[in-house]
Each structure stands twice: as structure tokens, then as C-alpha cells.
Amino acid sequence: MSPVTARPAGRPRDPELDRAILAAAEQLLREAGYAGMSLESVAAAAGTTVPAVRRRFHGKAGVAVAVIDSLRIETMPAESGPPRSRALALLRNFRANLLRGNSMAVVGTLLAEEHRHPELLAAFRHRLVEPRRAALRQVLAEGLSSGEPPDSADPDLLATMLIGSLYARYVATSDLPDDWAERALQQVWPDAPQSAAH
Amino acid sequence: MSPVTARPAGRPRDPELDRAILAAAEQLLREAGYAGMSLESVAAAAGTTVPAVRRRFHGKAGVAVAVIDSLRIETMPAESGPPRSRALALLRNFRANLLRGNSMAVVGTLLAEEHRHPELLAAFRHRLVEPRRAALRQVLAEGLSSGEPPDSADPDLLATMLIGSLYARYVATSDLPDDWAERALQQVWPDAPQSAAH
């Protein structure tokens, strides 16, 4: 039990300890959900005390938001190559992230907590959802501007459908086939055969 | 506290009380999630005792599965009319159900509990996810057999994309626009103009 004197207003003084706390909290969030993640369990797994966790992260919701901001994810692919290939790379990256350590359980717990702790879903959107949607929308719009996919396509809607196909597949089966990204993209943005160059 | 004598192995003896327990548990599942739903809170809200709840539903997971089996949802639309109109009706029905009382929080808590209580997600799939997917797949396949949507379409994939577009939109914004079903369907199955009859 560390003394509760002279609180430095959350200023991190030991980056190693901060990292240990976030790693422990991330694992608990993935395995036990927000409701099952206690400050006691985070402190114990990080080898520290509850007051030390509180001092750094201002309570349980603060720890969870910090975890979301620091999520160890597969970074999004570089922006090079033809738009369709980049769309495919973004969707493959999304699939890889969903398959990492209970990611759908994390999405689930943020949705389950939305009305009590909207800051969790907000942090997740800011850190992951919005950048991915924006990147996918952009490559779809670039494709459109050069004549693909079909000109009735709405980049925002198509991005939502492509991303959503992975959520809905998981909800239906807990299984995301290897070639899902290719097959989903093919439905709305068919790969032009090489021989059809013009 | 009722006496724990002569357990009738879960046989319901008072349908009114069963309904009161399920209604209380449904509300708690929607508002507090599975982790926040205690047998004590269910019993109190239903005006009964924990042993009475246990006797009927075999513990907390049993209550939750019974809630999912009995979810008060908007029933799926009747199977009549042209395939495209039926697809639209199914998607509008799905949207209406997602917008009812914290439904995305319920989906979230089932995903969050998947590894601890897979029977919850399994019950949800059996009761809601699979019938909806099957119905949508069928109308897409019927449309295909009469030349719409485009012949490269894969009914299972398109059904997953259309359903998923609502999940992904919610994850991104918590908002499901009125005309979302129309706009999403239009992307993959354009409405033939009236004048194009042949």
C-alpha cells in the first residue's frame, strides 16, 4: 500500500510500470471484459498496488481508455499501390486484428458498456474505427475516380459493408475465413481481368 | 426465502412467474449486461426469490439463455412480394430490432462472454442470427435466379455484408439512419427503374 501523499496528478514517473499496468489491463479486458476487470486484478497482474494504478490512470474507466489508446494492433498497411490492392490490404489487416486475442470480446464489452461508459467506445472509435473507415473510404473513392468500382458506388456505404461483413460473419460463426476479404471485395469491386486492359 | 424442498427439476408451475422472471432478466441483460445481471437483481425485480429463480432456470446462464430464447422482437416480415422488396423488409426489420432497447449492448455482452459462456451466443445465433441470415440468403438467391442482382453475386456473402453494414455503422456512430437498408441494398442490388420493364 503506497502512501497517498503529494499526488502528481497522473504524471507518469515510471514508464516501465505504466507499460506493465497497461499490458495487464489489456489482457484482462480481452479475457474478462470491462465488468470483469477490477483495479485489484490489474494491480496484482502488474505487480503493483491499487493506489499506484489509481494515481496514474484515474480509476478503472481511465485504465480502460488508456488500454484502448495503446492497443497493440497490427498497424495499417502503407499507402502505396493501386487502390483496389490497398482496399484489400486494409481489409486483410482488419481481419488479422479481429483474430488477435479476443478482439471481438473487446468490441463486445465496449458495446455492452456504451450507456454506462461511453468514453470507452469513443476511445475505440477514435483510435481504430475512424482511421480504418477513413482509409478504406479514401481508396474506394480513388478507385471510383478512375472508373472502378461501379459508378453507383458510395464509398462510405461500401466501406461500412466491407468492414461490417467481418463483424456479421463473426457474429454468425466466430470464424473469419482466410479469403474473406478477397471474396467480400470481389462482390462490390470485381478484380478486372488482366486481359481486359484498355 | 422459500424452502428448498421437493425440487421439481425445473418444471414450470407458474407461467406468470416465469414470464415475470424473464421480463426482469431481459431488462437487466439489456441495461447491465450479463456480468451486471445477478440472480438477486432478477429475483428482486420479478418479485420472487433467488431459489425460485434457480429452481426454474438452473442458474444465471440458464436464465440468460431463456431470455434469449424468448426475446421480444419485431417478428420477421411475411414471405410475399418480389424478392428485392422482401430483402428490404428483412433489413428494415433487422434495423428496427437493433434500435430496440439496447440491442447492440445485448449483442456486445454475448460477444464479451463468448469464451466463458458460449451457450449465450449459441442461443442468440439459433434464435435470431441464423433465421435472419437464411431468410436474406434465400431472397437474394431467388433474385439471382431471375437475373438480379448481378450474376457474380454470392447470396451468403451479400447477406453477410448487408447485415454487417448495420453492425459496422453502429460500431462507428451508434446511429442507424432511417434509409440505411434502402441505401445498402441499392449498392449491391440496384432497384430496376420502372420504365426498364421488359
From TrEMBL, chains A, B:
Protein name, as recorded: Transcriptional regulator, TetR family
GO molecular function, one term: transcription cis-regulatory region binding
UniProt entry keywords in alphabetical sequence: DNA-binding, Transcription, Transcription regulation
Domain of life: Bacteria
Keyword DNA-binding: yes
One Pfam family, short name: TetR_C_11
Residue ranges for the DNA-binding region feature of this UniProt entry: 38-57
Domain HTH tetR-type: 15-75
Keyword check for DNA-binding: yes
PROSITE patterns: HTH_TETR_2
Gene3D superfamilies with a match to the protein in the record: Homeodomain-like, Tetracycline Repressor, domain 2
InterPro entries to which the protein is assigned, alphabetical: Homeodomain-like_sf, HTH-type_TetR-like_transc_reg, HTH_TetR, Tet_transcr_reg_TetR-rel_C_sf, TetR_C
